[in-house]
Specification:
Blueprint (H helix, E strand, L loop, with lengths): L4 E7 L6 H11 L4 E6 L6 H7 L3 E4 L6 H14 L4 E4 L11 H10 L4 E5 L11 H18 L11 E4 H7 L9 H9 L4 E5 L16 H26 L1
């Protein structure tokens, strides 16, 4: 592989899964560098990463998923990596899906490829509130950017460095639909690639029962702000 690739793994209290995730990535795609962004974990996540000899960035406290990813992006760009892969530490993403997603990014000359649970026509899954939110936000992308992105909440993505540079200083909640809309409106090419994700076996999801109301409202607001910001930024060029 000619291009320099790094896998950014944000982690918060993932001591039950982080070892299998890192060992799986070593086996599936050993030529890629890896960095764990330890987002203020209070459990043994950090010590496990150290024992495995993996690169780790320790944040002073829990800053949230979006800030953890931005930290990983800044690290990747500062060290000259050309492709950044976002991979969750909770064991839901499958390491063997990394090579085909990376291949898709390169062959289709895309700026981002989303590891999508739904682009092949698979039904939305999970609690009703989550299914409804996924469905609404999927259709919202069609309204805002003229095409539908089926899995707007996937944390499994491959990006070119130039796409990361555009969003590295922005304000994003979880690097989901608001980021996709902004990048699309700036002309970045986004593709989806079908993947199968495992159910979370350990730990807690970042979405609590109350977040099924709060999260969609915050995401909708940030998406509208991102779209307005993109419109004015394009006019100013």
């Amino acid at each position: 592989m000619k291009q320099r690739v790094i896998i950014v793994i944000p982690a918060y209290n993932e001591e039950k899964t982080i070892s299998n995730v890192l060992l799986g990535l070593r086996q599936a795609i050993p030529e890629c560098a890896r960095v764990v962004v330890n987002d203020g974990s209070k459990d043994a996540t950090g010590s496990i990463v150290e024992e495995l000899g993996e690169k780790q960035i320790k944040l002073p406290c829990n800053l949230g998923y979006g800030h953890a990813l931005q930290t990983g992006f800044k690290y990747a760009i500062s060290y000259g990596y050309e492709i950044i892969i976002c991979f969750d530490a909770d064991g839901q993403h499958q390491p063997e899906d990394v090579p085909p997603i990376l291949k898709t990014l390169i062959e289709r000359d895309a700026d981002m490829v989303i590891g999508s649970r739904y682009c092949d026509g698979s039904p939305y899954t999970g609690p009703f509130g989550r299914r409804l939110g996924q469905h609404i936000f999927s259709h919202l992308t069609r309204l805002l950017i003229g095409r539908r992105i089926f899995d707007t909440s996937s944390g499994f993505k491959a990006l070119k460095a130039r796409a990361c540079e555009d969003i590295i200083d922005g304000t994003f909640l979880d690097f989901h639909i608001e980021t996709l809309v902004r990048l699309s409106m700036f002309g970045f090419k986004i593709e989806e690639f079908p993947v199968t994700m495992r159910e979370r076996s350990f730990g807690r999801s970042m979405h609590s029962p109350t977040s099924f109301i709060e999260y969609p409202l915050k995401t909708l607001l940030l998406t509208i702000v991102a779209a307005i910001d993109a419109v004015f930024a394009r006019r100013g060029k």
